[in-house]
What we know:
Layout: H1 2-20, E1 29-38, E2 51-53, E3 58-60, H2 62-69, E4 76-81, E5 90-94, E6 140-144, H3 154-159, E7 167-169, E8 176-180, E9 188-197, E10 213-221
Antiparallel strand pairs: 1-10, 2-3, 2-4, 4-5, 5-7, 6-8, 8-9, 9-10
Amino acid sequence: MKKIVFILACILMFPILTEARPKAMARAINTYKNCYIYGQSGRNTAKKGSAMCLTTGTTYSMANAFDKAGIKNIDVMLYFGKVKRDKKKVFHLFAPNDPTVTIAWEKDGGTTPFCKFEGPSREPDAYYALKNWKIRNATKLEKVAKVNFDNASGAFIEALPIHNSYIASDIKIGDVILFQLADKPERKGLIKVVSIENDEEKPEQVGNGQYQRVIVHVKIVR
């Protein structure tokens, strides 16, 4: 009889014991491959664009970022040139806003890369110029070493530490960049640079980074 009571007690206790163990939830990720983003000379061309939404992997021109995507959905932009004390021109993937700096918007002598993202030459102060955006996301961006983009799971990405950095500079083919969205900090992800290509419509600008496009893969935790 005692044996039967013990067995029944174990059966009744089993659900309690199993419920007490937290289940590891696998975080799903979205992956977007072969996304493109152009240097600043493509910023005002609808079919090119220098502004990207990381939740969809879609790139927009400055006007389309404002009118179609919605500026609240733009997470990163691409600039080729010198930033701060750079000695040479390189690619920079940067957030539309950096809360650690005071931005001067003058085209000449202003804060790069921000001041370079104005409207076209005929209307540099257009409503869609970056300085006129009422919302500019401060997306955290940081190059990471020894991270296998292809094998990175949602849980792995979430566990990666990220600092208060809002620009990834001197990006090259093979680089992996960790990011964290400004409006949804629980959403982190990775960007992998897979190639840098010339603009076929600008054969006279071969090798000029501000006219080139950077091809990336994007992974983001849902």
